[in-house]
Design a protein that fits this description.
The complex is a heterodimer of chains A (272) and B (358). Chain A has 272 residues and is of the alpha/beta class. Chain A contains ten helices and twelve strands. A six-stranded mixed sheet of chain A has the order 8-9-10-5-11-12, sandwiched between helices. In chain A, strands 4-3-6-7 form a four-stranded antiparallel sheet, with helices on one face. Chain B has a domain at 23-267: ABC transporter involved in vitamin B12 uptake, BtuC. The chains are: A alpha/beta (272), B mainly alpha (358).
């Protein structure tokens, strides 16, 4: 690990710290299908790191490896300078990694407030007996965490739908609530799986602004998958490009844009 | 008119998250408590206690228990009858082994024992879901009834194979046995119901409830935000079985007095409590009350109307009862799949705007 501790300064003057998460030679197979083939990359503190690639390139699988859904057959995941043992997804969450899903995974039967409150589960320390009594510890804990949640609700501008059941919300707002739930955990690393899928231009602009604000105000490290190239190139500090489970490019948006292999993967190669 | 939140501003998160945020609701709740504790015990007689109030109170406890498992945590269970039997037999063994201990403690301990048994039978839920889990809990139902039938230790080697509730008291007031008075048994069950409802409400509005509901709505997402599915499901089984066990203990010791396990705690009981939960409303404490009231009250009302008012023969009314109750259940599920609790919510929405609907 060469410049782990150092980091770099972005064009717009943000300081990027050392390596937070490092994927080393990850290979993931489903039976005979190789979803990810020997991929290594790192994510630095405070950075917005994008993973792009055509459909079926293995981007979501990569995110699922990071969040513990898939266990890679080969390779290591390093988090905060230590090799991560095999973990269940809820243990990964307890380490401070939160995520959103490509197709929204909210709790439909609960209100927006309750959904966002679930993001604070890691901070709830009372046991079931204290909660059954409610008065005292459980109640004060509830109020404390409610304050933190209200900050996120303000931040994402969803105050007006606080008590609405999630199942009644339109798609764009659901995406925002899901982001609020992930943020309520105050994660060290936030994984966003296509946060702008299925949105119109205005909603995309809103979401981009939120992502930049999150990174700016809370200093959260973000790894995101996105198909909209304009958004990716504008938002991210560094980009990993995948195709057919292999890494074909890694670098700043400009570097990636001019990479011949990446151009070939996206535009196709003429065979004559 | 009365039922509105206008002008009732909440200035703290505590006030905002209370059980009855609307003032009228709160007063209604206190009024119901006052009547239940302060007036009914003085006017109650044996008929009302045995035909209506005791079964309602006890089934409401069981329905709250099952609602936590099915309605809040989304784990289908058909083993309620079996778990009620565990509560009943645990209570019986405790009553006969420690005759001097207060009934209060016996009933709570019986609930605790049922919670442990419930966790054991809840273990398969970690691997299987939905209908398959229902079948697994069905196995619990049949196994437990078989166990209490076949192992004489459970019924203290009595010749009939039945268990009979001996006379026991709380603070010198006789609660069980033939000499118990109606008001005492009523109050005893009412206290348990009130406590159970408050505990259930506290659990479901806080962190534990959110974990359960997260597992119910989407277990993958629940795990990704840090819910340990093993812990969440097993606590749901434990809490649910605790309440169901208390209901079973009361059903045997206070209400029936003598129990033959296959008859009283058979599969019909599991379905009856499940119907209460579904008709009342899944995922609602109020729904558990409403469902229990509906299914306890309806047969009595039909009998009164048929036999006493219309003067029909008893056997015809008894058959009609089954037909009508069954038809009503089907009708209900078609018209309002979310149960009585949803009807109540809709009524409240309307009340908030009444008499100016726009």
């Amino acid at each position: 690990m060469l410049d782990n501790a150092e980091g770099y300064v972005t064009e717009d003057g943000r300081k990027i710290g050392g390596v937070v998460m490092e994927m080393k030679n990850i290979t993931l197979r489903f039976g005979g299908v190789v979803a990810i083939k020997d991929i290594s990359f790192d994510i630095r503190e405070g950075e917005i790191r994008a993973i792009i690639g055509p459909n079926g390139a293995g981007k979501s699988s990569m995110l699922n490896v990071i969040s513990g859904f898939y266990v890679p057959q080969e390779g290591e995941v390093w988090f905060h300078g230590a090799k991560r043992p095999q973990m269940r997804p809820f243990e990964v969450a307890q380490q401070g990694i939160a995520r959103t899903f490509q197709n929204i995974a909210l709790f439909e039967g609960m209100s927006v407030l309750d959904n966002v409150m679930t993001g604070r589960l890691g901070y709830m320390k009372t046991n079931i007996f204290q909660q059954a009594l409610w008065k005292g510890k459980a109640e004060s804990e509830e109020v404390e965490n409610r304050e933190a949640v209200e900050k996120m609700i303000d931040f994402l501008e969803i105050q007006h739908i606080r008590k609405t059941p999630v199942s009644r919300l339109p798609y764009g707002l659901k995406k925002r609530v899901e982001l609020a739930r992930a943020l309520a955990a105050e994660p060290k690393l936030l994984l966003l799986d296509e946060p702008m899928a299925g949105m119109n231009v205005e909603e995309k602009e809103d979401m981009s602004r939120f992502i930049l604000d999150v990174n700016d105000e809370f200093g959260t490290t973000i790894a995101l998958i996105e198909h909209d190239m304009g958004v990716v190139m504008d938002l991210s500090d560094r980009v990993v490009v995948m195709d057919y489970g292999k890494k074909i490019g890694d670098g700043t948006p400009d570097e990636v844009r001019n990479n011949q292999e990446v151009i070939d993967a996206y535009l196709g190669v003429s065979h004559d | 008119m009365f039922y509105r939140e206008a002008g009732d501003f909440k200035t703290s998160y505590t006030a905002d998250s209370q059980t009855f945020p609307i003032k009228f609701d709160r007063y209604r709740y206190y009024a119901v408590l006052a009547v239940a504790f302060g007036i009914i015990p003085f006017i109650i007689n044996d008929y009302w206690a045995n035909a209506l109030l005791l079964p309602f109170l006890i089934y409401a406890i069981a329905a709250i228990g099952l609602n936590i498992l099915v309605g809040y945590c989304g784990q289908v269970s058909l083993g309620t009858g079996g778990f009620m039997a565990v509560g009943a037999y645990a209570c019986y063994k405790l009553m006969t082994a420690f005759p001097d201990v207060s009934m209060f403690i016996h009933v709570i301990l019986a609930g605790g024992i049922t919670a442990i048994v419930g966790v054991l039978f809840g273990l398969p839920s970690l691997r299987i879901k939905g209908f398959y889990l229902a079948v697994a809990t069905l196995a619990a139902q049949f196994f437990l009834v078989w166990l209490f039938n076949r192992v004489p230790w459970f019924y203290n080697y009595s010749a009939s194979g039945q268990i009979n509730s001996p006379e026991r008291d709380v603070f010198g007031i006789v609660i069980t046995g033939p000499n118990a008075s109606a008001w005492a048994t009523y109050l005893f069950c009412l206290i348990f119901l009130t406590l159970c409802a408050i505990l259930a409400r506290n659990l479901t509005r806080g962190t534990t409830g959110r974990k359960w509901m997260a597992i119910r709505d989407m277990d993958i997402a629940a795990e990704i935000i840090g819910v340990n599915p093993l812990k969440a499901k097993l606590t749901a089984f434990a809490v649910s079985s605790f309440f169901v066990g208390i209901a079973g203990a009361l059903f045997f010791s206070v209400y029936l007095g003598a129990v033959e396990v296959g008859e009283v705690f058979g599969i019909q009981k599991s379905f009856l409590v499940l119907f209460m939960v579904i008709i009342g409303g899944l995922g609602s404490i109020f729904g558990s009350f409403a469902g229990a009231a509906f299914l306890v009250l309806l047969p009595v009302v039909l009998k009164v109307v048929g036999v006493d008012v219309l003067g029909w023969p008893t056997d015809i009314v008894a058959h009609l009862q089954l037909v009508i109750v069954g038809a009503l259940i089907v009708m209900f599920l078609i018209l309002e799949p979310h149960g009585l609790a949803q009807l109540w919510r809709v009524a409240k929405e309307k009340l908030r705007l009444w008499p100016f609907p726009h």
